[in-house]
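ENCODED BACKBONE
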Amino acid sequence: MTDYDVLRVFCGPHGDRGNELGVVREGSDVPDEGERQALAAKLGFSETVFVDDPERGVIDIYTPTTRLPFAGHPCVGTAWLLDVPELVTPAGVVGARLDGEFTWIEARPEWAPPRTLREYGSAAEVEKLQVPPPGEWIYAWAWEDAAAGRVRARGFPGRNDGIDEDEATGAAALLLTAHLHRALNITQGKGSQILTAPQPEGLIEVGGRVRLT
């Protein structure tokens, strides 16, 4: 069996919750794209990362069913694990930095896979939502405190791959931040925390806590 690390990304204030991420540090152990896809499906994480060059931060990202040019929580988790200033993804170069308990990445919203941003009237409505049938990728959100930028959100991938709900989704947070044009403090899933902040030249920072399981 190929060796891999399991991280929890976008943990809550007490270090709990977060979205699990598989990271294969020796990507050369699984060089073929088909083999990588098969391993990602077998592991069953919402995303699995293969590190092709740890010093340069070259990575390759897979869901259980498809390869992604960019994804938020894999980049945040891998940046923390490798402690590098940038990651090289098929979508582009992702800036990275560590700041106390938070790991931040800097990316462009157009790199994120498509998501349907669906606003609700209250956080309670979002919390009561049932998992929708397979179809579009839905990011359901509502203001908890608009003045403070606090958002309640849940992510529904809409795929038939066993991942009915994403506990924390950096790419969707990136898109929501671009849509609202402001910094956000997002509580997603069962208590994961994602922080975002617009930056110059169309870039957006996404940050969170990472733990090794």
